[in-house]
Each structure stands twice: as structure tokens, then as C-alpha cells.
Design a protein that fits this description.
This protein is α/β, with parallel strands linked by helices and 209 residues long. The protein contains 7 helices and 10 strands. The protein has helices spanning 3-12, 40-51, 70-82, 98-101, 116-127, 143-153, 171-183; strands at residues 14-16, 25-27, 35-36, 59-64, 85-90, 109-112, 131-137, 157-165, 187-189, 198-202. α1 (3-12) crosses α3 and α6 packs parallel to α7. The longest helix has 13 residues, at 70-82. The N and C termini lie far apart (40 Å).
Length: 209
């Protein structure tokens, strides 16, 4: 498969997990069984946010907390069809499945086996003057961890861009996110059909970095 064929295959092969469970959305791969990713509501949000990226935008999708790579594969597939987006995903505990999930998409996705904080200086060198359209925060599930990730990476989010915070059902994560958002009124919460997640949009001019 070429890059576009692989991206199309990925987008078509996210299917319901027949076993049910808390996260009923899976991606079937050609090499093995299904890989558990996120719930349908959250994936719908991710896809919609990327679809809203202006066609002339040149920039990044950033994921903090890779897991097995299923969500990164989905975002990379969408990035292929946008044409101006690339994906960075990072985690200190990358799972072996990631090479399977991202097979055929590595032209548009870069993954790093590292925590978000020590990677930040390298991240700034990689993106240069370009901005983040979609920041997905699913890293340390602590108040301090969620707050730290947001404070580090938010200056690079483009005006009109989005932050999606996972696991807001956890009080400690919600505390860290809400503390950050209370200090940054330029981000407004977007009400979705999946209210347990925290989706925010940037409305103000970019902060100088």
C-alpha cells in the first residue's frame, strides 16, 4: 500500500469492539487482533477537530501519552488527507504494538519513547515556527502531570486550534486541567455529546514564545 491507501485502510477499519467494555472502539489490523483505543464519542471529537483544520494550515497534531498507538494511527491517517499536518506522539512506555499500528504511516507520524517534560526542548526544535492544531493530553494521570503538560505545550497551540484532555472522569486529572483553564481564559470549553472529556478551543492571539 502507498501512504494514501494505508491511511484510507486505517480510517475504514476502526470498528466496534464486539466484546464491549469501557472503551468499545477498536482498530483491526492486518497482522493481529484488534487494538483497543478510545470510545466512539472521543474518536468522533478527534476526527471532527482535525477536519476543522484550515486546508492551508501547515503544522502539527501532538499526542502526549501514546499507549499502543491506535489513536496516533487514526490521527496520522487524517493528517495524510489534510496534506499539511504531521503527528508527534510521545510516551515513556511505548508498547510493542506501536510499530504495527503505525506501519505505512511513518511519513507523517513521529513517535518518541520519552516523557513530555524532558522532550519539550527537542520538540521546539522539531516544530520551529509552526503551530499545533490539535493537542491531545493523555499523559500522567495526576493533577500535577496534567497541569504540567498543558503549561508546557499550550503556547504552541494555534489560534482556533484545540486541546482535548482525556480521562476527565478522574478527579485528580480534572483538578489539574481546571486549574490550568482557570488561569488561561483564552481557552473556552466546547460542549460535546461526550461530556466526560475536556475539549477546549483557543480564541485569543498566540502568546509570544
Amino acid at each position: 500500500m502507498d501512504l494514501r491507501e494505508r491511511a484510507e485502510w486505517v480510517l475504514k477499519n476502526f470498528t466496534w469492539n464486539p466484546q464491549g467494555g469501557n472503551d468499545p472502539f477498536w482498530m483491526k489490523t492486518e497482522q493481529r487482533g484488534p487494538c483497543q483505543v478510545k470510545s466512539t464519542g472521543e474518536l468522533d471529537i478527534i476526527l471532527d477537530c482535525i477536519d476543522r483544520c484550515p486546508k492551508d494550515f501547515q503544522g502539527w497534531i501532538v499526542e502526549i501519552g501514546t499507549g499502543k498507538g491506535g489513536t496516533a494511527a487514526l490521527m496520522a491517517a487524517k493528517a495524510v488527507f489534510h496534506g499539511g499536518l504531521q503527528v508527534i506522539t510521545m510516551s515513556p512506555d511505548l508498547k510493542p504494538e506501536i510499530d504495527i499500528e503505525l506501519e505505512g504511516l511513518k511519513e507523517v507520524v513521529n513517535y518518541y519513547n520519552v516523557k513530555s517534560e524532558p522532550f519539550y526542548e527537542e520538540f521546539k526544535k522539531i516544530i520551529g515556527d509552526e503551530k499545533i492544531w490539535f493537542l491531545y493530553v493523555d499523559g500522567e494521570h495526576t493533577e500535577q502531570g496534567a497541569n504540567k503538560d498543558l503549561n508546557l505545550y499550550y503556547p504552541h497551540v494555534a489560534e482556533g486550534g484545540y486541546i482535548l484532555c482525556h480521562d476527565m472522569t478522574m478527579q485528580r486529572v480534572r483538578n489539574g486541567v481546571e486549574k490550568f483553564m482557570n488561569e488561561h481564559p483564552e481557552f473556552k470549553r466546547i460542549i460535546t455529546k461526550h461530556p466526560i472529556q475536556g475539549l477546549y478551543k483557543r480564541y485569543s492571539p498566540l502568546k509570544n514564545i
